[in-house]
TrEMBL record:
Record's protein name: MSLNL protein
One family name in Pfam for this protein: Mesothelin
Highest taxon of the lineage: Eukaryota
InterPro entries listed in its UniProt record: Mesothelin, Stereocilin-rel
Location relative to the cell: Membrane
Chain segments carrying region Disordered: 497-628
Family: Belongs to the mesothelin family.
Database matches in Gene3D superfamilies: 1.20.970.40
Gene: Mslnl
Chief location of this protein within or outside the cell: membrane
Cellular compartments per GO CC: cell surface; membrane
Biological processes, Gene Ontology terms: cell-matrix adhesion
Segments of skewed composition (Low complexity): 510-540, 558-628
Keywords for this protein: Cell adhesion, Glycoprotein, Membrane, Signal
Length: 628
């Protein structure tokens, strides 16, 4: 959020052209519409070296960045030339899977920049590697060096590709990964485990499973010192781990054992032994130590756990290390709540908003509003619409005491506005104080509720950020909203070049853009509403063909809407004038004011049959401090 605010500040000061002096991470938050065409290649080449994980995958801001880069580089289809790949950098990670085979071997180095590939991208990568027409050659010729040179691409290899790699090369690579495991951080260990499991699966499928050759330990018994110093998977099969690891050593060293690069077969052995040690159920103190073993327990087994304290619950959900699966969160919370536990703000913060979206409706209902108020900003972006609405209602209740101060009220509600009804959004828009909603928050609003907002509502919500709406006009929710608005109102009220609105109704005089100036700011908390001058109801639902028709963007990049002429009616009814809306002021509201008055303040009444656009006038009287 701080980077986003800083980027907008720099753009406002016209410093976008000096992007070379800013770190790449900051450039990710620049508005692409502010980037000059003559230097856009350099801009995107530098921005693509930033940490794209700062922008959620699929987010509106990240997609605008990609579309801006594609437009700048002249990309028209799926194929990317080497020079384009160099400028796109990690932005290639968001391209469609078809880009990989279309671009050929040159795309491989760019794909190494991707933290993760989608399933379809992985399939496309494997198909390209299986052709043998890359610098790595045919998979059957790969050795340890080749697998290491693949770098992060090795994480995307599927069983079809791995099955062609020689067993000796697979084993050498597996050992090299296991040897480096202890010195790696948590995130790198997770990647190593993925590789170890994939290569173990390939090895087990390429040779027949050997029968159990002994019912006793054939190696040295596993001790505390061997757990601390050795990689057990290199010397013990899963069967031998079972036979060589005593129950006492397991319980004494459970956390250290879970630091080993165990695949699922090894973890199943550990679970079996733990269940044998505690046939009557795992004690609560031992539950806190389960770590990744938690993932192996069923819903029925979890329903018997003594999860009576928030400490136990947090240990099982540990967001900073090995933990239960997100899909197990509802079962864990159900057990915790059934034993008398309660969901507090700190607990919600530790659980993380994303995993809260796995909760069932009745579990969400058990969250007290005060817990939302104490939790800080929760990320509920992955929640369903009904869940967002539940969170919003609780947040609105939690922050009700701030409703008289629109700025702070908006800031606290912002993470939950995706569940807000149009009625509440209109209140924010017309509170008399500009809240300057950022575009990312605007794009999270419920599309169905967004359709109920007027052009003036949207203008007042976005405030200083309204210009950014032009860069998001092809977002589905924005496009649907545009199609419900009159084009003349988009032109006169917003005046940012948006296209796709409805034709104006017959009999409406459209104020020229050049004369549609914003009325003076009202004093205190007074606001001015748009005033139509005798617009018949019948004319509000009929119209003539629009003179502008937006062109849908082709696949591969955005397209600027183009103007197309249309027929003009031979006769039009007498014109009636519409007055543009005003914008909220930024002054601090009166201390005791609870809401902005809805009445229009004016000292002049337009003539009923006026045919020109009168200027909106406002009284200069200041409302009393206690006006409501």
């Amino acid at each position: 959020a701080q980077l986003s605010c800083l980027a907008r500040l720099l753009a406002a000061k016209n410093l976008t052209a000096d992007f070379g002096s800013f770190p790449p991470d900051l450039l990710l938050f620049f508005d692409p519409s502010e980037v000059r065409a003559g230097s856009c290649r350099e801009f995107y080449a530098r921005a693509s070296r930033g940490n794209l994980e700062l922008l959620p995958r699929g987010s509106a801001r990240r997609m605008r960045l990609l579309r801006g880069a594609l437009t700048c580089l002249g990309v028209r289809g799926s194929r990317l030339e080497p020079r384009q790949l160099g400028s796109l950098g990690a932005l290639v990670c968001d391209m469609e899977p078809a880009t990989i085979p279309a671009s050929g071997p040159a795309v491989l180095d760019s794909l190494k920049l991707c933290p993760a590939l989608t399933g379809e991208q992985q399939n496309a990568l494997n198909a390209l590697l299986l052709t043998g027409n890359t610098e790595y050659g045919d998979p059957s010729s790969w050795d340890l060096r080749t697998l290491q040179d693949l770098g992060p691409l090795a994480l995307a290899l599927n069983q079809s590709t791995l099955s062609l790699v020689g067993e000796a090369a697979r084993e050498d690579f597996r050992r090299s990964i296991a040897a480096a495991y202890r010195s790696q951080g948590h995130s790198q260990r997770e990647k190593s485990l993925i590789l170890l499991r994939a290569f173990a699966a390939a090895s087990s499928s390429s040779r027949p499973r050997m029968k159990r050759s002994a019912d006793r330990c054939l190696s040295e018994p596993i001790t505390t010192s061997s757990i601390a110093g050795d990689i057990l998977t290199l010397d013990y099969t899963p069967e031998q781990l079972d036979l060589c690891l005593s129950n006492d050593v397991l319980i004494e060293n459970l956390e250290a054992l879970l630091e080993q690069p165990f695949t699922s077969e090894y973890l199943q052995i550990l679970k079996k032994k733990v269940d044998e040690i505690f046939p009557e159920g795992i004690p609560e103190e031992q539950l806190k130590r389960l770590g990744s073993l938690c993932r192996l327990y069923s819903e029925q087994e979890i329903s018997r756990w003594p999860v009576t304290s928030s400490d136990t619950l947090l240990a099982l959900l540990n967001p900073s290390g090995e933990k239960c699966e997100d899909s197990q969160v509802p079962q864990l919370l159900s057990r915790f709540l059934s034993l008398g536990g309660s969901l507090t703000g700190p607990l919600l913060r530790e659980i993380e908003g994303k995993r809260l979206c796995n909760l069932q409706e009745e579990q969400l209902q058990q969250i007290p509003a005060e817990a939302i108020g104490a939790a800080g900003q929760l990320d509920i972006s992955s929640c369903s619409q009904p869940q967002k609405e539940q969170f919003y209602r609780k947040a609105r209740e939690a922050f009700a005491s701030l409703a008289g101060t629109p700025g702070p009220y908006y800031c606290r509600l912002r993470p939950y506005l995706g569940g807000a009804p149009a009625e509440d959004l209109k209140k924010l828009a017309n509170a008399g104080v500009a809240i300057n909603m950022d575009l990312d928050t605007f794009l999270t609003l419920n599309p169905e509720e967004l359709l109920k907002l007027s052009v003036c509502d949207v203008k007042n919500l976005l405030g200083d950020n309204v210009k950014g709406l032009k860069g998001a006009e092809w977002e589905p929710a924005v496009r649907a909203w545009l199609e419900t608005q009159f084009q003349w109102e988009l032109d006169c009220v917003l005046d940012i070049g948006l296209q796709g609105g409805r034709p104006e109704p017959p009999g409406t005089a459209i104020p020229p853009t050049s004369t549609a100036t914003t009325p003076p700011h009202p004093t205190a908390s007074a606001s001015v509403t748009p005033v139509p001058t005798t617009v018949p109801t019948s004319t509000a639902i009929t119209g003539h063909p629009s003179t502008l028709s937006p062109t849908a963007p082709p696949s591969g990049g955005p397209t600027v809407p183009s103007a197309t002429p249309s027929a003009t009616p031979s006769a039009r009814p007498a014109l009636t004038t519409m007055v543009p809306c005003s914008t909220p002021h930024t002054a601090t509201p009166a201390p005791n004011a609870t809401s902005a008055p809805s009445a229009t303040h004016s000292t002049a009444t337009p003539a009923p049959n006026a045919t020109s656009a009168p200027s909106a006038t406002h009284s200069t009287a200041t409302p009393a401090p206690n006006a409501t």
